[in-house]
Amino acid sequence: MSAAPGRPLVLVGLMSGTSHDGISAAVVRFIPGERDDRPLPELLSFVQLPYDDAFRARLLSAIAAPTHPGDYTRLDFELGDRLGTAAVTAIAESGLAREDVDAVASHGHTVWHDAPRATWQFGQPAAIAERTGRPVIADFRTRDVAAGGQGAPLVPIADTLLFAGPDWRALQNIGGIGNVTVVPPGGGVQGTRAFDTGPGVGVIDAVVRSLRPDLPYDVDGKLASQGSAIVSVVDAALTHAYFSAPPPKSTGRELFTPAYVADLIARCRAAQATCRDEDIVATAVELTARSIRLAFERFIPEPVADLVISGGGARNPALVRRLEMHFEQRAVRQFDDLFFDGDAKEAVAFAFLGWLHLRGLPGNVPACTGARGPRVLGTLTPA
After folding, report:
1. Residue 58 contacts residue 109 (beta carbons within 8 Å)
2. CATH topology of domain 164-338
3. Is residue 271 within 8 Å of residue 167, measured between CB atoms?
4. Topology agreement, domain 9-151+342-381 and domain 164-338
5. How far apart are CA 197 and CA 247, in angstroms?
6. Domain limits, the chain
7. Dihedrals phi, psi of 45, to nearest 5 degrees
């Protein structure tokens, strides 16, 4: 399946991220722009379908405690059905008929990422196609990995072709994992770099759920705001080899596991006799903020004018304040203020990857993933 240039295409982008909070679905109309590879994205609708506690626990256990293959396959199909439901809901919200949608582009949910050797995303595309009646493009990461790349990050192609600014810009997503794209003035693949900076809100949320089982995350950053970070614990955490490894690089919950979170909590309590829950949460927040700053100090020499933040971490006032402190020489800006709802950004990015697939254009940035060259990403499941 391919699409000729010159007409608008409508795609649904689906994303289930490492924060394990639910599915994001965006319906996007891509209007042809002045350049063949730079359409104008028009967000028609955006919905989020949260996971119930039982399903979230199954996703988490698929990473932390692998079991029988039958459990994996059932979870794959069940997630596919949920992704299809999210797509149908978003299409209804947009006011379009399903027939008006050219394709659904699904990232699925990463269960295992061991790049550059392997990567695995759940969310059976055939189930999505059956639920929506539309063609489905999925499995975006594997071709890049097969070409020697990390398979991540993949959002940089959207960052540089859709969200560039007049000066050097850094787009920092703070989902379960933090990742940054450094975009040259005016955008363009040449000069764009990206990599995972380390933990986003994944460690923060896991710390909160461990300490306060009644809370899914630190609502409005209230716990962190009432605590004080234990600097020695953050210093020790940042000595991990990942933070000093040069890009291209990617990481995930394979590193920031429940055991990692338990060890962080134990280190906080051992370091400070009067340690409160609020101090531990503040320490997790500071770990994310400083890991982002450290990435800039070590690996981003470009004269970045502004840091544009999105993802769940951009909704955490305590984390945003720490970033503003660490980046006082740069403007820290919300993605929402420049474009559209920042929570939709990754779903829109995968809709764009689907658009690139339909146009037969590469979806990876080899300088960001380490692949041997540009590749058309994704596999197509017909309607």
Report:
1. no
2. Nucleotidyltransferase; domain 5 (3.30.420)
3. no
4. yes
5. 9
6. 9-151+342-381, 164-338
7. -165, 160
Which ranges constitute the DSSP H helices of 152-194?
Answer: 156-162
The alpha-helical segments, DSSP class H, found in the chain are 53-64, 69-94, 125-132, 142-146, 156-162, 202-211, 222-225, 231-237, 241-244, 258-271, 277-299, 317-326, 335-338, 345-359, 366-369
Strand partners, 182: 170, 193
Write phi, then psi, for 223 (nearest 5 degrees): -65, -50
> In sequence order, which residues have a C-beta less than 8 Å from that of residue 26 and are 6 or more positions away?
12, 13, 43, 45, 46, 90, 344, 347, 348, 351
- The rounded Cα 98 to chain-centroid distance in angstroms is 27
- What residues are paired with 23 via a beta bridge? 16, 49
pLDDT over 80 at 202, yes or no? yes
Q: Tell me the C-alpha to C-alpha distance, in Å, between residue 116 and each of 150, 206, 360, 362, 369.
A: 5, 27, 24, 19, 9
**Per-residue pLDDT reduced to its tens digit, 106-144:** 999 988 888 788 999 999 999 999 999 999 999 999 999
What distances in angstroms separate CA 183 from CA 64, 144, 195, 239, one per listed residue? 35, 20, 12, 28
Distance, in Å, from the CA atom of 149 to the CA atom of 375, rounded to the nearest integer, reads: 11
- Euclidean distance between CA atoms 231 and 21, whole angstroms: 29
Chain length of the chain:
383
What's the pLDDT tens digit per position in 245-301?
A: 999 898 887 799 999 999 999 999 999 999 999 999 999 999 999 999 999 999 999
Host H or E run for residue 24? strand 22-31
Any idea which fold 9-151+342-381 has?
Answer: Nucleotidyltransferase; domain 5 (3.30.420)
Q: Enumerate residues 6+ apart whose C-beta is below 8 A from 206.
A: 256, 258, 261
Q: What is the pLDDT of residues 53-93, one digit of tens each?
A: 899 888 888 766 767 788 888 999 999 999 999 999 999 99
